[in-house]
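Notes to self, X-prolyl aminopeptidase (aminopeptidase P) 2, membrane-bound:
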Amino acid sequence: MPPCGWLLLLSLAALTGNTFCAITTSQTERNCSISPPYLPSTVINTTLRLQELRKRMLPLNISAYIIPGTDAHLSEYIAPRDARLTFMTGFTGSAGTAVVTQTKATLWTDSRYWVQAERQMDCNWELEKDVSISSIAEWLISEVPAGGEIGFDPFLFSLETYENYDINLGSSNHSLTSVPVNLVDQVWTDRPPILADGIISLPDRVIRLFNMRGNDIPFNPFFYSYTLLTLDEIWLFIHTERLTGELKEYLNASCAGPLCVQLKSYDSVRAQLQEYVARPGIKVWIGTEYTNYALYELITPVDKLMTSSYSPVLTTKAVKDETEQRILRDAHVRDAVAVIQLLMWLEKVVPQGTETELTAAEYVNMCRSKQKDSKGPSFETISASGANAALAHYSPTNESSRKLTVDEMYLVDSGGQYLDGTTDITRTVHWGTPTEMQREAFTRVLQGNIEISRTIFPSGTRGANMEMLGRRALWEVGLNYGHGTGHGVGNYFGVHEWPVGFQTNNIPFTSGMFTSIEPGYYKDNDFGIRIEDIAVIVPKPTKYGNNYLTFDIVSLVPYDRKLIDTSLLSMQQIQWLNKYYETIRTLVGPELDRQGLKEEKDWMLKNTEPFPLTAALDAGIVPMQSIWSS
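result:
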């Protein structure tokens, strides 16, 4: 799945109801320039919500109120009760920020969600096609009178976010005002409650410390919590009424020693931290990327504060030990079975136009549910064909759903949660005859995937320094993609696990890290391509140097052969592809046998036949060493 800041609120399939049905209309996006305005059925009326929010801004002397799309733990995935941006705007995309004044309401989001925003927002809202804080600050300076106060919930701002707003507002005579009680929550009268059950710990940093899981966040085994860890105390801030006696015993919650967990009310975290910081000789270490401003602003004076970009818990869990690596590989073998079942099924039913009771997303989730240790999907499946697949995070509606046919490309991005690992894989297929442009674009995306995967690099290299390898083949013909190239993956954790990946704020690669590799290409109103595999970083012996690394792919599903133009591939790329297919046969074949899936094994063997090396030779694409030796 494309990484943050490129991800998420994903989709269900284009297969709907009992058949491959399509619902089409002449217009799926709002039109606020006519009278009366045209609003599609996907729009939510936000008039009363805005009126109530503005009433609550007045006694606080707030001229503008900022509404981010995150939660108090700055999570990428959030629970329904934290979807404040969606409640206020109607927009369900995962990336965005809203600002409300007494006269205007505006949403900022990136290019993945522009169409979606126009389909979901009413005419109370304006759309700014940008996500930068500098753009929001520029708008605030122009719309808020000099001396006006700009309110925000400090629980929903990271330290970095606050500093960026502060810098961009600069000397404009506008001030940020921390409002710890969220104003949207006061308006949201039917806000979903916290689940009554569900702890079996966070958000993910707490999970790593206590080896516990929950279900407060959809698709993620997390629950609401904070931890303060000192040399002689462990404080766990949690909804204590949800803990069973067994869990309290597991946590040593009935004692007071350095290995005993002191249970604190989740809502008392600010008061308790303030009391702790007031002690003499205290110094507090925080990770600035994922500590909210509500906690940071309490750590005063500044000499009591020590910071790093990421907490030591995040950087430690980014590197999997031998056991974690082994079981995460095992999870991907079983997950491959489910994806192979989906692709084989679609290959049968789409060309025949067969009526089906399940959508593609439902089908692959059903297949995963039958695998050992399955705990459900790791995110909402993206299932899109034709022009819908050109939206990297397509989310279906009655108006936008379309029939799956042999005439269009189809993209499916899905993943599973298992007790031994988290998976995420994307495949793009065509059941008919692809155009030459589609085959070339797919092959160049595949080349990017291969070139990153086969790269050998020194330990400590940053992903950002090799990210262009995923784009080079596309750049050669003037193509590109607008999302990130990869993200970390957890062991029954989040499907997007920071701080691993190919972005500039990710930490350097070391052995034992898992990352996705997912270049793509999206042609507006036509088709979309993405190839996503998960890889583990492993040591690579070299002729002269030590401490070198490479990627070992653990996703084990073949690519669509009819979309691969082997004349564009180098001999080295074909050799890599054939070796990968041999690995699929070696690892997935026995699992298919064990599950008695003979038809699926035959499909896998057919689709992992080696490619002839003569294609590269016929095209004049030969390894460099062959030229030197001639």
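- The chain has three domains: 46-187, 200-317, 318-555.
- The CA atoms of residues 444 and 473 lie 5 Å apart.
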